[in-house]
């Protein structure tokens, strides 16, 4: 399989090197020849200087033909919200991208695919800091805010920087099977698989950022961290309001204004995030995880997992945990590999 990386000056090196190492590691596991042939392309060819100063030798994309690549991976980089720069990148790339069997982007590389019209009426993801600009520039794209990567048909998009490694592992699993993908992940010392729908970033951190940006008081702004330290305790509106020295009604109104969600939904988000991390990380019993993360019992946690993720905690661990078997039961069938996190 021929995998081509499209990059440009000020591209992010990890967007390229991370996925490339995944494919190279998969090649090293093969006894009957390499599975992936890697190539590097740019608008003009020659040396390309990444944002970190790394220099990568490339071929001119004009020398490529649509059938030369089975997979095209478009890097992210600095300044991709500039319309003139986007046009300069899209023009030579578009005919190649439209002819590839599988087209992918890492981080802000989604801006390039969107500018080429390849993401119109499709689900996509980009780095969380770029979501607002992306929605403004490309209203025809159904951009999502939480997933690490999204597959919509033959097009895959992934979120911030290191998510390109997760995407590449998913491609290897699709091409060569789960056993190979798991072995590659172990060799690279990364999580065996983060589900595509796992949030890009900590709910605690983003809660703090959102609250502070909306003028929250110091106590209300720090509340997300306070909640995260007490997930196993009772965290109803009355207790949270008392901690912030407010009435329940005033607290609920101010919390929603600062955090953009209800207190109950936010607490559930943090509990779900903590339970996901515990299921991925080790062998702690599901009963204990349910108690420590505040769900109370296994049945309540099971209901939340089914409602939000469409999968039970047991199946989640079997598929995504570090101790997962090589051939776990599938979550669902079809071409969409994303594990959805549904609204509460």
TrEMBL record:
Pfam families: DJ-1_PfpI (PF01965), HTH_18 (PF12833). It comes from the Bacteria. GO terms for molecular function: DNA-binding transcription factor activity; sequence-specific DNA binding. It comes from Allosphingosinicella deserti. Keywords: Transcription, Transcription regulation. This is AraC family transcriptional regulator. SMART domains: HTH_ARAC. InterPro entries: Class_I_gatase-like, DJ-1/PfpI, Homeodomain-like_sf, HTH_AraC, INH-QAR. The keyword Transcription regulation applies. Residues 322-344 are annotated as: Disordered. Residues 221-319 form the HTH araC/xylS-type domain.
